[in-house]
């Protein structure tokens, strides 16, 4: 699997950036044509769609509350910690891509400063989880994170056969769409927030992969003698998730904890066997 992932990562070319750039241009063109570049117009343009989506999705509050947690990098990556052993190149890409996505989030949210639904809309809608009332709605950080990580997985594990490639791409896109739609379901973001967030996430994944191709910044994570560093990080992550369980007690946290503990056991065992 390591060799397959490594080969797939090397296949990414600059031409892959055309799609996300064109999509961003299309969104900007749509907003410009709709005269919705100002905060109030931007919100008004999609208010009805947001209220409809929120009403339809919020009838599954437990599902929404659990799935939306996968927009937290700690939770989503906990399910992927086993790749640290079987496909470490993925983790090199994750690190680079998430650093890029964090930069996008830090720049874009204060730059646009669009009020969240609970801070602007007078209409009643369902809020699941904490009530978010800041002016940092655009783009959705959860959506950026989801598509950053899924984008890396998409290319790292891309099949060779055309039909399998199509099915794999559809699966990742549908999975991503389900996860980011929960941000509307919990009443935290407008539709365009999550759409643009997903595009920036995909863009972050591509940039992260290209950086991984060009610079060997994290190749040392594959060295068994350095596993104690990651054993410590996994342990700290375990403690953080336990606190989340004590605070919110969501089922998704138990699954993330279970995955993390399995990975911690595996890398600890490998380290001990190699050392002794």
Automatic annotation (TrEMBL):
Which residue ranges does the record assign to the Phosphatidic acid phosphatase type 2/haloperoxidase domain? 92-209
Q: Which Pfam families match?
A: PAP2 (PF01569)
Q: Where are the transmembrane segments?
A: 12-33, 67-87, 94-114, 140-159, 166-186, 192-212, 224-245, 251-272
Q: Which SUPFAM superfamilies match?
A: Acid phosphatase/Vanadium-dependent haloperoxidase (SSF48317)
Q: Alphabetically list the UniProt keywords.
A: Membrane, Transmembrane, Transmembrane helix
- According to UniProt, the name of this protein is Phosphatidic acid phosphatase type 2/haloperoxidase domain-containing protein
Q: Say which species the protein is native to.
A: Sphingobacterium paucimobilis HER1398
């Amino acid at each position: 699997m390591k060799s397959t992932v490594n080969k797939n990562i090397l296949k990414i070319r600059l031409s892959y950036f055309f799609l996300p750039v064109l999509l961003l241009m299309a969104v900007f063109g749509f907003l410009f044509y709709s005269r919705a570049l100002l905060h109030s117009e931007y919100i008004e343009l999609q208010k009805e769609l947001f209220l409809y989506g929120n009403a339809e999705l919020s009838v599954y509050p437990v599902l929404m509350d659990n799935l939306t947690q996968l927009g937290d990098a700690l939770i989503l990556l906990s399910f992927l910690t086993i790749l640290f052993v079987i496909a470490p190149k993925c983790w090199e890409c994750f690190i680079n891509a998430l650093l890029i996505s964090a930069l996008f989030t830090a720049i874009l949210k204060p730059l646009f400063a669009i009020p969240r639904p609970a801070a602007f809309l007078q209409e009643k809608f369902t809020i699941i989880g904490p009530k978010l009332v800041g002016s940092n709605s655009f783009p959705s950080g959860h959506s950026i994170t989801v598509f950053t990580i899924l984008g890396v997985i998409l290319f790292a594990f891309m099949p060779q056969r055309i039909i399998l490639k199509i099915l794999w791409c559809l699966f990742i896109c549908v999975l991503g769409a389900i996860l980011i739609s929960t941000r509307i379901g919990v009443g935290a973001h407008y539709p365009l927030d999550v759409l643009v967030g997903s595009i920036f996430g995909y863009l972050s994944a591509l940039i992260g992969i290209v950086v991984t191709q060009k610079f060997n910044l994290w190749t040392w994570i594959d060295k068994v003698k350095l596993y104690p560093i990651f054993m410590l990080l996994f342990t700290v992550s375990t403690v953080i998730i336990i606190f989340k369980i004590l605070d919110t007690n969501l089922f998704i946290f138990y699954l993330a904890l279970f995955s993390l503990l399995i990975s911690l056991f595996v890398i600890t065992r490998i380290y001990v066997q190699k050392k002794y």
